[in-house]
């Protein structure tokens, strides 16, 4: 399963927001690289370069250069990093024009759409309503794919 992760999932964990445990489970399962019997990665993380830039801003603002290097190493080793192409830019502009989605969100969404992500995980409830493809909240993803039946994560 290819999973696109939004910036706000990383920030929710970093800031210990109300759903940070669900976000942690998702990021952990991606970083652990579990394999299915056929040898494919169960939860393959894909990441837009825009997400990487947005996450790193806080580290640079606080002059936490060592932590930024550590994060970059984690991202490179755990995610397939998808750069912004002209095609992604064109589709993001269309999405912004038609639905009024903020441009960084449109670029991130179209990156995952173009990369054939199975799921896009975001805390942005506006995106879940506006996009025509599957955008799940972290809690919904955890409850649907990572939790044993009958043990749902609270919202």
Structure in words:
With 155 residues, the protein is of the alpha/beta class. The protein has a single domain, classed as Rossmann fold (3-Layer(aba) Sandwich), CATH 3.40.50. Helix content is 57%, strand content 12%. It has eight helices and five strands, in the order βααβααβααβαβα. The protein has helices spanning 7-14, 20-32, 49-61, 65-78, 86-99, 103-114, 125-130, 138-146; strands at 2-5, 44-48, 79-82, 119-121, 135-136. A five-stranded parallel beta sheet has the order 3-2-1-4-5. Helix 3 runs antiparallel to helix 4 (65-78). The longest helix has 14 residues, at 65-78. The radius of gyration is 15 Å and the shape is globular. The mean pLDDT is 91.
Largest sheet: 5 strands, parallel
Secondary-structure-based class equals alpha/beta
Question: Per CATH, what is the topology?
Answer: Rossmann fold
Low-confidence stretches: none
User: What topology, given as strand order, has the largest sheet?
Assistant: 3-2-1-4-5
What is the H-and-E element order?
Answer: EHHEHHEHHEHEH
- Report the portion of residues in β strands: 5-15%
Rg over C-alpha atoms, rounded to the nearest angstrom: 15 Å
| Coarse shape | globular
Mean pLDDT: 91
CATH architecture call: 3-Layer(aba) Sandwich
| N-end to C-end Cα span | 23 Å
Topology (elements, then pairings):
Elements: E1 2-5, H1 7-14, H2 20-32, E2 44-48, H3 49-61, H4 65-78, E3 79-82, H5 86-99, H6 103-114, E4 119-121, H7 125-130, E5 135-136, H8 138-146
Parallel strand pairs: 1-2, 1-4, 2-3, 4-5
What are the key terms here?
155 residues, alpha/beta, Rossmann fold, five-stranded parallel beta sheet, 8 helices, 5 strands, 57% helix, globular
């Amino acid at each position: 399963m290819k999973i696109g992760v939004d910036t706000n999932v990383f920030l929710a964990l970093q800031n210990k927001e109300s759903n940070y445990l669900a976000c942690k489970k998702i990021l952990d399962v991606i970083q652990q690289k579990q394999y299915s019997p056929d040898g494919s990665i169960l939860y393959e993380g894909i990441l837009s370069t825009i997400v990487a830039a947005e996450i790193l801003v806080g580290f640079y603002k606080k002059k936490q250069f060592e932590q930024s290097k550590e994060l970059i190493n984690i991202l490179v080793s755990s995610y397939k990093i998808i750069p912004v192409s002209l095609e992604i830019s064109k589709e993001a502009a269309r999405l912004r024009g038609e639905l009024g989605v903020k441009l960084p969100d449109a670029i991130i969404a179209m990156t995952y759409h173009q990369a054939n992500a199975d799921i896009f995980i975001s805390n942005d409830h506006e995106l879940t309503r506006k996009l025509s493809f599957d955008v799940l909240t972290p809690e919904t993803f955890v409850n649907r794919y990572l939790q044993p039946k009958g043990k749902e994560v609270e919202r």
